[in-house]
Amino acid sequence: MSSRKYLIAFGILTVLLLADQAIKIYIKTHFPLGEVVRWTNWCSIHFTENPGMAFGFTFGAVYGKIALTTFRILASIFGLYYLIKIIKSQYPLGYIIAVVLILTGALGNIVDSICYGLWFDRGTVYNADFNTYLGYDGIAAFGSGYAPIMQGCVVDMFYFPLFNGTFPNWMPLWGGEAFEFFRPVFNLADACITCGVIILLLFNKRFQNAIEGLKKPAPATTDVDLNS
Fold first, then answer.
1. Would residue 223 show up in a list of annotated catalytic residues for this protein?
2. Annotation marks residue 20 as catalytic
């Protein structure tokens, strides 16, 4: 049973990680930064580069970027160890898949942070004079590198503005202001993390019951004299 779960877990991880990188590299080498391709009113490709966390959130400047990437690496090492442990312990397959999705998402964005500054000739870089990250013109290509190791930016492209509206006037702080859902631009790795967390939340009780069942000792068996 463990060998089957290993195959499923690492098969999903490999396929999704390769798909994430294939999409990012295609976008990076075929679209200028900021390009928007609208498929429908609620679904677009919007090429952005994220120097920080998931869904476009940032975390400090260069040192914050390095610290974040280091944390991601350490968390992924622990995640891989934990994944192997729960497979060996025969945890429910659904729980294993959720962990795989979260780990895949972390690894996908780690590749961008570690390698993209070295692989591509242009990208979003931090400018100390303006105290912010600045974009670039043109379309990137594989080249001499635009940033040191661990300082590459994560490529985001999926933009789903499902609906727009206005907050009611009686609402504190935001009353009367326009809003858009879903505003952040994200990638496949971000989606994997989100799906993994949602699975854990939705099926938490079921997973916990199954895990507790694994920890219970097997019932004692008694020898029966078949000749009596």
1. no
2. no
